[in-house]
Amino acid sequence: MSNSRKPLVIGNWKMNLDFVESVHLGQQLGVRLKNRPAEHTEIVVAPPFVDLRSVASIVDSERIPVAVGAQHVNPHENGAHTGEVSISMLQRLGVTWVLVGHSERRALYAMDDDVVAATLRAVVRSGLRAVLCVGEALDVREDEEQDRFVEAQLVHALRGLDPKYHELVTVAYEPIWAIGTGRTASTEQVASMSGHLRRVLGRLLVVESRVLYGGSVNAENAASLVAEGGVDGFLVGGASLKADSFLAIIQACDDCYALMANRRS
Ligand code: PGA
Question: Which of 42, 104, 174, 196 is catalytic?
Fold first, then answer.
């Protein structure tokens, strides 16, 4: 973890939890997080579109220190895009974060690098925070091409972005072979890729961005990944669906951050 950046943990609920279940999880998180000191790990949850309204309402009415994110958005302003949701619709619901280019969107819904770049631009121009997801498939890793591959994704998405929007961009490294598989990247692999991403970001002059890791993060591996992986936090799928495991991951980031702060003082 970096010395200066505040850690961030994002729960990506994917296509799980209906409206009733999401209210239940929102309330459980609320009870446990309500009196949390504000200086600790920043928390975001990204429920399915249909749950956004109810989760945002709970967060708002209970004053829970959690931001609400969407898992995807259509970059067009409005119009004939059956089944899609626009940025202004999200904003009206109190959404402040959007995942952009998750590997499942790229692989299953034909989201190519151009659409990822267009979506990222639309999101940050509207003042929302974007989590740009990058990551290689297993064959790319086996060919040891992961650095080049992920760099190309990052450069394509960020090249030419007006620097005034840089602070709204977070990068999530999510190797596809580690997502939902129980096969986590090793701390060495995460440290190597987070270092590489920071060098590329530095070259693009996007120096303030946080770099997250995602891929089978759980209560057991979070502490070592955040302490030794050089990342600023996590994008969590499966383990974000239960309050206990999600909160344990947040706690691991809090502990690591507190340790760093102690060393600094
Ligand atoms: P996982 O998903 O934690 O279930 O592997 C991570 C993600 O896809 O964001």
Answer: 174
Q: Say if 2 falls within a structural domain.
A: no
Which residue's CA lies nearest to atom 6 of ligand 1? Answer: 237
Using 70 as the pLDDT threshold, list the residues of the chain that sit under it.
1-4, 38-39
pLDDT at 35: 81
Spatial contact of 63 and 101, defined as CB atoms under 8 Å apart: no
CATH number of 245's domain = 3.20.20.70
Backbone angles phi, psi at 259, to 5 degrees: -60, -45
Give the Cα separation of 58 and 75 in Å (integer): 27
Q: Model-level pTM?
A: 0.96
Confirm whether 20 is domain-assigned. Answer: yes
Give the list of residues 6+ apart from residue 156 with CB closer than 8 angstroms, or none.
113, 114, 116, 117
Residue numbers of the domain that contains 168: 8-264
Q: How many domains does one find in the chain? A: 1
DSSP symbol at 165: G
102 is catalytic: yes
